[in-house]
Amino acid sequence: MIYYPLRTLVSAGLEDIMIVTGGNNAGDFLRLLSNGREFGLKDISYTYQEGEGGIADALRLAENFADNDKVVVMLGDNIIEDDISDAVREFEKQDIGARIFLKEVSDP
C-alpha cells in the first residue's frame, strides 16, 4: 500500500518525505524503501509511532522533520486518483492555511 501514495507524492514534486509508522512491521518499510532514491526521493526519514496516536500524534512526531515548513499528510489507505501537482504548487504559494482533498463515494 505504500507504493501508491509514494508515487503520488513524487509525481507532485516532493523529494523529502517522512514515513510515520508503528506496529510489528515498522521495520519492513526501511527494508522495502531503503534510502528512497530508487523511487525518486532525495531524502526519506522514518519515525515510529507508539500506540494509537492518530494523525495528530504523527504530525507531532514529524515536527522536527518539517522544521516549520509546509507539510503534506497522506495516509497509505487513501487513494487519490488525480494528479495533485497543481494543488501542491498552489498550497506552496499560500501564506497560511491548509488544503484537504475530498471525494464523495457511493459506498464508503
TrEMBL record:
<dbReference type="GO" id="GO:0008879">
    <property type="term" value="F:glucose-1-phosphate thymidylyltransferase activity"/>
</dbReference>
<dbReference type="Pfam" id="PF00483">
    <property type="entry name" value="NTP_transferase"/>
</dbReference>
<protein>
    <recommendedName>
        <fullName>glucose-1-phosphate thymidylyltransferase</fullName>
        <ecNumber>2.7.7.24</ecNumber>
    </recommendedName>
</protein>
<keyword id="KW-0808">Transferase</keyword>
<dbReference type="GO" id="GO:0046872">
    <property type="term" value="F:metal ion binding"/>
</dbReference>
<keyword id="KW-0460">Magnesium</keyword>
<dbReference type="InterPro" id="IPR005835">
    <property type="entry name" value="NTP_transferase_dom"/>
</dbReference>
<keyword id="KW-0548">Nucleotidyltransferase</keyword>
<keyword id="KW-0479">Metal-binding</keyword>
<dbReference type="InterPro" id="IPR029044">
    <property type="entry name" value="Nucleotide-diphossugar_trans"/>
</dbReference>
<feature type="domain" description="Nucleotidyl transferase">
    <location>
        <begin position="1"/>
        <end position="107"/>
    </location>
</feature>
<dbReference type="InterPro" id="IPR005907">
    <property type="entry name" value="G1P_thy_trans_s"/>
</dbReference>
<comment type="similarity">
    <text>Belongs to the glucose-1-phosphate thymidylyltransferase family.</text>
</comment>
